[in-house]
């Protein structure tokens, strides 16, 4: 074990605004947009899909501004887990931290498995696990070198995705107006059969689930704040620019797809990366006469899944490091080497991710349970952000502070966190209503098992250490956590 004098090392603050913006942007632009976005149109029609993504986008905006207010005032590596410990209840911080770490540690194997499937498009005779293990080694190396190597990698991988979406939007608009692909299509699909709204409110609510999973990853801005060079400026800029870009990309992309493909098109139901030729993006590019569309989109999706795995390893490593600093995990995971890398947290996360990846060779059912257990973790993390910010602002004013002391103000308090909390509860409860209707207990277990796991963690810590809700007067507003402090940079 490393000696105790070294275990108080600090993270390197080397991430710039451009890194933070692209990390958040890259975290949300992936297979959810490139492949699964079509299912939203098929389920709720073009109008219903736009409404669902619009409402979910507004909720995410409130959440990100809430996170931004806390992260600019107190940029800690543990982000919302550390905030929950300070502003709400240590048991909540304990449960949220392990919940989020588990979520990403289990998601990494899913992403590297997807990378293997994507590579089989070009090399079908090579076993997919070879590519998966190669990607796993690659992201480990990137995270091992330095936080800047992670930031730079994410910047360029995200840039590839952003350029792809921009080109798609330009080509799509050209098809809509008949500049490419033959006759103009206009808005005819918006009043085709039952369009624009198909299935009414229940269909829109079901699309909330798809939209919610698509937007997950934006909270990475909060995780990276602890390693940002100038968090007071970088975090707020990243949140505002990222939100509008994400909303523009998603809303505009869905609009373009809905204009070109009717909601009854069977290709919109495709959610399989192994069938890239049926992706809405590929179909639109082909309609414009771009013969290489499938191969190009496959390459883009490969960058997307590598980016997701890379971010997953970074986020889970930092959360495990924070858990150790708070006393929620073995102290060795809080050790930071000379390059500012929590090396043992990185190694520990890699071991768990490799073990999770290996379960698919033992039995697919075990792998499915692991994926199911992590399914709701992102929404639970969002709940933690909403609760923490509500308590932070209340405590801040209760203790005699004024809003003028905050360098960044969240939008629409207290409506923002309350609205986000309520919508997250609706999404979590509505994950798999059909399974309850059919009394399919195995399906229910796989879908909702993340909730009892979180509650077990919460009540375990609460009962063992007899924690309670911290009164507003006693909320800790000091800008430090165990082993980590922050001094603001003067403007």
From TrEMBL:
Residues 19-469 form the Amino acid permease/ SLC12A domain. Coiled coil: none annotated. It is a multi-pass membrane protein. Keywords: Amino-acid transport, Membrane, Transmembrane, Transmembrane helix, Transport. GO terms for cellular component: membrane. Its main location: membrane. The keyword Membrane applies. It is found in: Membrane. GO terms for molecular function: amino acid transmembrane transporter activity. The chain crosses the membrane at residues 20-41, 47-64, 101-123, 129-147, 159-180, 200-222, 243-264, 284-309, 341-363, 369-392, 413-433, 445-463. It holds the Pfam family AA_permease. PANTHER family: AMINO ACID PERMEASE, GENERAL AMINO-ACID PERMEASE GAP1. This is Amino acid permease.
